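Um, can you check?
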Amino acid sequence: DQRNRSMSLKLNIACPSTGCQKTIEIEDEQKLRAFWDKRISQEVDGDILGDEFKGYIFKITGGNDKQGFPMMQGVLISNRTRLLLKKGSKCYRPRTKGERKRKSVRGCIVSHDLSVLNLSVVKKGEADVEGLTDEKSAKPRRLGPKRANNIRKLFNLTKEDDPRDVIVRRTIEKDGKKSYSKAPKIQRLITPDRIQRKLKWKAERRHRWEKSRAAAKEYNALVAQRLKEERERRLSYKEKRRSLSRKMSEKKAAKAQ
């Protein structure tokens, strides 16, 4: 009984198309052998879990061990380790600016120490699974994507189609008030105003570059003129000194005679 309890593993299966999740507990070691030594983002056939999942393909998305430490993608070990994490790292949220912290995480390789393994449905099988892939259990999508390219990908739009026409809206109803709809602001949407604004910025950069280039040319010409004037002044000064020295020497020679 202790051995069976240690080999049990919960599989948290998610279906992105319906928005549903289902958790099943597997205690049969023969079924779990297909998951051992697999890494995060690798795919597993669902036939090993029984006829209910025949034809399904799952992708490993993560998991937790018996002490609750999460698996981390990119850590190619099957046990637990301590890593120095910073802002932007997985499995860590900094509390102060510039904070780093050494935390325990589990590697991305599936091992016997896991208690929960997260899976995602990549390919649907022959039959629907109740509470996971059937249309009756499907949850309507409350919020749609915001980025323009993600909206095009969701509705299979071309570059000529406008994402604003198919954006997911939700209706808000309040007691005694008129209902209204809300939609997210589309990010990275290329509009004629956006193109005109970018052309304006480009023209401004070009104007600043030409202005600075003309100012540098004018400054270099002024510096060259000042150097030329200084050179001519020194030459004239030296010429005056030479002529004065020549006259003095001629006077001394005349007095000596």
Summary: The beta strands are 9-15, 20-26, 43-45, 57-65, 80-85, 101-106, 114-123, 170-172, 180-182. The longest strand covers residues 114-123. The mean pLDDT is 90. The longest helix spans residues 192-256.
